[in-house]
Amino acid sequence: MTSPIVRLFNRLDSLWDTLTDPTMDQHLIQNSFISSQFLIQRNITLSAHDFQTSGTTSTNLGQNPPILFCLQSPDIIARHPLNYQGEYFVLAARAGAAEDPTPRHNLNLISAGPSTVWDRGILLAAYIQRWAIRGYPRVLPPGVLNLGEFCNISAVVHPHALDLTTLGWDRNGPQLNIRWQTDVFEYTTTTPNGLTLHPHLILLSVQSCRGEERYITLGELTAIMTAMRNRARQPAVFDEDAALEDEGEPILAGSGNPILTEADLEFRYERRFPVLMVSLVGPHHVRVLYACMDGLRLVIRMSQLYDIDIDVDGLMNFIARVLLSHPLRESGSQ
After folding, report:
1. Interval 219-278: pLDDT, tens
2. Is residue 152 domain-resident?
């Protein structure tokens, strides 16, 4: 009999193969959106969710299936304000290039800049990272560089056991109608037994299309599926030097790359592979998505679209709380 992890592998691989197949574009609504029929046929559930009002540990774990993240406290930014005495700002001022890091100023610059959804999204994603995760110095404990480090969150960069060269994380190029880009973050906490890497992943994704309340985009679903699939396949032992030497073309859908034995997997006991995403879409909007497996069913919860030009400070604080959220574990999980 096939083991549960192999059945899960097969399920994740099948969905990933379908979404990264070049013919997938032919089945989209308005060139960007996944149809309800497609989701139903592939046992994917998409439902609306208000992440702003359901953020406590008990509430999230009480969902079916559970939401295995808890947003940071509403005062996370207020408790760690920008440190204008930090080296970043001091050196900029000395060079005559003093910078205004506030959300309203930067969003005004972005809105007045590039005309395309894609170019604005790329600039906004870069600013969000500087504001919320890594970049601008903030008032933090000695030795802590940024809010990401303070919250035990780090960027996933190549080379990495998660394999960022796999097809599906990104799709961009000037000749493509459908484009997306994904930055990936993970949690590592210190325990008495050493460092513990959690299976949870956070994605900051940019889409080239506008957002629609009822539909998930191809880029959003493909990036989520790639994150879950690659996390399931992640080896417990990883040779960075060998990965750099073996660099080549991205792995293609249907290539049949080998599955490790369960003993070789970093997360061999995981069955949810939770993913939290902040997605930037057109014309100037953002939304939050959460995905996890429930058996062989893929469950996705999606927030409303938030207009970035309305309540800029409040929305940026919400985005920071999402990106800096901490992982939750189900009782009985290993």
Report:
1. 999 999 999 999 998 988 877 766 655 555 444 333 444 556 777 888 888 899 999 999
2. yes
Q: What is the pLDDT of residues 19-58, one digit of tens each?
A: 999 899 888 998 899 999 999 999 999 999 999 886 789 9
Q: Are 327 and 272 in contact (CB under 8 A)?
A: no
The verdict on residue 231 lying in a domain is yes
> How many domains does the structure of the chain reveal?
1
pTM of the model: 0.92
| pLDDT of 56 | 85
Segments forming the whole domain that contains residue 167? 4-327
Q: Which residues contact 45 (CB under 8 A, 6 or more apart)?
A: 39, 297, 298, 299, 300
Q: How many CA atoms lie within 13 A of 140 on its CB side?
A: 18
Backbone angles phi, psi at 207, to 5 degrees: -110, 150
In order of 17, 257, 328, the CA distances from 230 in angstroms are: 12, 12, 20
Structural domain contains residue 90: yes
Shortest CA distance to 284 belongs to which of 102, 120, 126?
120
- Please give the Cα distance from 298 to 42 (Å, whole number): 9
| Mean pLDDT calculated for residue range 159-169 | 91
Which DSSP string do the residues of 174-241 spell out, in sequence order?
TT-SS-EEEEEEEEEEEETTEEEEEEEEEEEEEEEEE-BTTB-BHHHHHHHHHHHHHHHH-BSS--HH
Instruction: Please choose, from the candidates 228, 203, 211, 214, the residue with its C-alpha nearest in 3D space to the C-alpha of residue 289.
Output: 203
Euclidean distance between CA atoms 168 and 164, whole angstroms: 9
3 state DSSP class of 298: strand
* 37 within some domain: yes
pLDDT digits (tens, 9 = 90+) for 190-227: 777 777 889 999 999 999 999 999 999 999 999 999 99
Write down the pLDDT at residue 253: 38
Burial of 169 (C-beta count, 10 Å sphere; 0-12/13-18/19+): buried
